[in-house]
Amino acid sequence: MAGRQEKKPGVGEQGEGFLLQAVELGVHRRLMLPSVSESSLAGAGWYAAQQMSTSSRMLGIDAGATLCKLALSCERPQTALIPSTHFDAVRQQIERWRPDRILATGGRAKQLGERVAGLEPRWVSEVDAWARGASVLARRQGLELPPRYVLVSLGTGTSVLEVRGDKGTRIGGTALGGGTLVGLGRMLLQAGSFQELTQLARRGDRRKVDLLVGDIYSDGRAPLPPQVTASNFGKLASTRDVDLAHALMGLLGENIALICSALARLHGLETVVFGGSTLNDNPTLEQTLELSTRALGQRPHFLGTAAFCGALGAAALGEV
Ligand SMILES: Nc1ncnc2c1ncn2[C@@H]1O[C@H](COP(=O)(O)OP(=O)(O)OP(=O)(O)O)[C@@H](O)[C@H]1O
Ligand SMILES: [Mg+2]
Questions:
Q1: Which of its termini does the chain have fewer beta carbons within 10 Å around, N or C?
Q2: Which pLDDT score is estimated for 75?
Q3: Closest Cα to atom 15, ligand 1: which residue?
Q4: Largest interatomic CA distance in the chain
Q5: Pocket test for ligand 1, best of 277, 280, 303 (most atoms within 8 A of CB)
Q6: Which of 22-31, 66-75, 97-106, 133-142 comes out lowest in average pLDDT?
Q7: Is the pLDDT of residue 18 over 70?
């Protein structure tokens, strides 16, 4: 939820070749529930497994522009995150897990091929997978969502959905997204990985980089509170990598919050739920989204284990 700082399990360190981390749960399903932490990836998978027959091994795959997310729902739920450039590794992981069914979604899902591990994947709608995944994760978090809300997939790019019950409709989006962070981070900071960028941002202070309303109006007669950003990167009194990384998160968070809140208002919705791997272990971005969304009059919520919303939802859709 808002203000979470802890590392989200299941997202491994980037760098060495590709990233692959499977999280495995114990076998004692009943006994495991109370000990599963709020943000536990394994816990989220566990919850999804509750919705499903324990005899079938349902694999949900959300293959996006950057990352392929896999969620296996069964007695021992597991997840894996593999770069979308490594479909061989995705197929190998599926062979190892030997699911009974595969439900696939995301822009790169067709790259799986018509047949994998002896199965024909069933293609499911990305918006419906996300809508379903959000309700699975929200229930897991003990979060009660309204019948209609905005769901944001903060991926490589950003998609904004309206969810009604378990059904999703795309209502907008922006090309500002996790890909923007990684690209600008590489260019400005030579940050070699997403993790490096998030670590830098945690230690930065973007007030030295952004021009604030208070920097312009010194006589206290400003039309906006003095701490509001007047211009992202408009001051640049510091070029320290930590401050620039913090300012990048600010640029993204403030503008995504603005777009999502405007769309929410346009559609008469008050709750904005954020998910997507860009929020993995990224408290700086989460805090910016939280503050900006609240300031704009909407209620923000953050899905624990945000990366796996679509994959868990796809697996859950396999039950119907
Ligand atoms: N281990 C990682 N490696 C690379 N990027 C990561 C990693 N963890 C988080 N990210 C961030 O997550 C973003 C991708 O998010 P996500 O997996 O939700 O998107 P996607 O599904 O691949 O893309 P889209 O939905 O736009 O097709 C990256 O652009 C990056 O900012
Ligand atoms: Mg995606």
A1: C
A2: 84
A3: 155
A4: 71
A5: 277
A6: 22-31
A7: no
> Looking at 72-76, 218-222, 300-304, which range is the least confident one?
218-222
How far is residue 110 from each of residues 60, 100, 113, 123, measured CA to CA in Å? 14, 19, 6, 8
Ligand 1 proximity of 155 Cβ (cutoff 6 Å):
yes
User: pLDDT tens digits for 234-283?
Assistant: 999 999 999 999 999 999 999 999 999 999 999 999 999 999 999 999 99
Side-chain half-sphere CA neighbours of 254 within 13 A = 14
Confidence of residue 55 (pLDDT cuts 50, 70, 90): low
- Nearest-atom index, ligand 1, CA of 67: 22
Q: Please name which ligand lies nearest the alpha carbon of 173.
A: 1
Atom 19 of ligand 1, residue of closest alpha carbon: 155
Query: With a 6 A CB cut-off, is 280 part of the ligand 1 pocket?
Result: yes
Distance 170 CA to ligand 1 centre (A): 19
Catalytic residue list: 126
Unique residue bearing structure tokens 């070029």? 239
The pLDDT tens digits for 178-205 are: 999 999 999 999 999 999 999 999 999 9
User: Which one, of 287, 200, 212, 285, lies nearest residue 244 by Cα?
Assistant: 200
C-beta atoms surrounding 210 within 10 Å: 24
The alpha carbon of 73 is separated from its chain's Cα centroid by a whole number of angstroms, namely 19
Determine whether the shortest distance from the Cβ of 49 to ligand 1 is under 6 A: no
Q: Minimum-distance ligand to the CA of 174?
A: 1
More confident residue, 27 or 115: 115
Residues 204/206/207/209 CA torsion (nearest 10 deg): 120
Closest ligand 1 atom, CA of 63?
Answer: 21
What CATH number was assigned to the domain covering residues 172-307? 3.30.420.40
Task: Ligand 1, residue 107: give the atom nearest the CA.
Answer: 27
Cβ-based neighbours of 27, under 8 Å, separated by 6 or more: 75, 76
